[in-house]
């Protein structure tokens, strides 16, 4: 090729790129953090500025991370007696829990903006800002890779995809429990499983062009209850929810074969949660967005569970309270959140007629959720608890709860109190061999 | 973590439990010992119908009917014990089951000395083997070691010892697919409520192995070292419909002659072997499987010899089966289609034609096939759907399968084929289970409705197709209620109603109710 033509083309390309970036937010040093959160403190300083420095959370041999804020004392305590004073900083669901359970209390600690990620993720988010777009009515993300796709979301669907594609590690392994608390106050361990998550979307060696469209592969090996021990499951999630719904396979003990599973999505109840949570309630919301119109309401300062390394370290007996988690075990902080409202789209159905989701601005992950039933009654409320891993570095929700405000039953899911910590490993494409249906079959013992 | 929820859902269909004995949760070794205890009872609700018990044609089909008057047909305790130990993918698994059913340790209600097929005991007793298999037994299920090795970029995994293995997409009609040649089924245990999948296939000593070539493609193979037949309802047990087959079968009436059961005639038994290729097609967005197996049929053929007053249960040797399966999502439903053809499949013969020549012994069967065989085609189309709340329930699962077979050509002994039977037969089963969560604190309730129907049932290929007795234009309806308390205690009450005509539904008068309660720990 002629040198001059090449020069000319390069110049042209540079112009196009510069043009794109001119419209892009300044995420590296401007008013926004690299993930699109507000960098500055709030007016009265109760939410500090984001400084981008990871906290020290060197994990022990058991992969449990220390609570970097263990020595702090609560700034204030909110109970049903003084709830009115803080009403504008509480979600509807939190207020409903305070009204329902006399023992429920919110201990508010100093806010720490501990959510820090790697430079590679920051670079990817900056690139996504100008290349990612939604198609198929919000069901498909195109052009995004390696970070949240929409640091400056223009609508609710974009913000919800940020929650779904937020960073939870590259290859994350932990063993988690699910506890159901019945209306009578019984506590039941309904499920324990080794959970392995691989995120090809966050492969640092990958490129947006070569991305297969699989954003997550999960493998679950059930060990409790005994009747279910030996069952295993594998799933694949796609960024093209429109043409590729979630895939799943299950290993059937006793037959030693793997079957493709039916679609376990939307409002199909999770039996191990005694019907208290549906498949789309995982991590407060997951799955296809086609049943909802999702509105971006805006940003708000509210009290949310945050920096809960302390919660994850306590024995489960110290964590389960009456009607809610034991207030002594949960750390709440004031943070800025994005408020989303998902209402049933025309002609669609879901038992949750309306959902409100509160996404932490620093991680984009849902930390609180409220659900209304078809009669417009506030029905369920969910909380998700953030694990800070400054060593990774990352901050992401892990365990979550759903409370049925009508019956009083509740579920504490992805609990690691009795099972050790979380192992974050570097993505390795070879590891994907463990996340296949034939690996389920050959690894099955029972 | 959505995955948490999903795996749990799979658990739904099975049963719950609580803390297992995790003997070493933190160490390098993972050691588990789990036990499931169960009590079950059943009661007959209608008296024997004379159409099904009387007449010359019924002398070999009446014992199970005559042995039970209305009332208790089973009062049974079961224990299933499972032990695993593994480290870094290498380990051992042992499992065993034991049971006691007081009903089978008592006398029967049968007073028909003229038609009983018992030889060693009177009509009012269960044959010793029936009493053992249905009444009191303990047996090892699994005993095997397993491991895996990395060979370059491929992973080889293997199991050596007694275990079960099934390929294909079949849900209910395993005997009509590739599974038939891979694993014998415990039909008797299948009828005990609350039985888990891991108890219903009979493990056989074998070496099985998987070589994972890529993320989407693997090849599998096995070789079996011992033959085991399907475990039928023991002769004279409540749901048995033939008196000359199954454990405890002591004789067959051939006119006035009572021929004694001389046992299995295995013939020149080669090892069962099989190979499979599993892959995933991006184009079809589907899982594909291709299978080739050779096996000794788990269903036996009756071979009589009037001269010695005996009959043998001959094992058809060296049946070949080739199959393919495809499975994919269609909407929210998983659809699986499994098709296979068989070479050397034994066919149903005209009565009295399958005989051992005078003067020959069972060894004659090594080189001769006295029953007809043929080339046959088999199809199983299955679906699984799980969905959410609707007007009447909190959750719903639907599991169904259509199954069909057809004879393409006859190989051996065409003149002996029972031409009164159907060249093509088909049937289906559907289980619809609505569930209600937390009906009372800690209690989830589901109401499974299970319908099995033979649309055209008298298969020349298999008298037990699509169900025991091949009820033509008949079947069964089971309505149950299952309560799961604290995910640990499971109780079930089911009413089973048999439909069809007295001429082709041998279980027509055997409606019964069954109750079970179980827990695992």
Automatic annotation (TrEMBL), chain A:
Keyword set includes Acetylation: no
Region of interest (Disordered), residue spans: 43-72
Keywords: Signal
InterPro entries for the chain: DUF1329 (IPR010752)
ATP-binding recorded as keyword: no
Signal peptide span: 1-22
Residue ranges that the Swiss-Prot or TrEMBL entry lists as coiled coil: none
Compositional bias per record (Basic and acidic residues), positions renumbered to this chain: 53-67
Source species, domain of life: Bacteria
Protein name according to UniProt: DUF1329 domain-containing protein
Native source organism of the sequence: Duganella dendranthematis
From TrEMBL, chain B:
Pfam families: DUF1302
Keyword Signal: yes
Keywords: Signal
Signal peptide: 1-20
InterPro entries (UniProt xref): DUF1302
Protein name as annotated: DUF1302 domain-containing protein
Organism: Duganella dendranthematis
Organism phylogeny: Bacteria, Pseudomonadati, Pseudomonadota, Betaproteobacteria, Burkholderiales
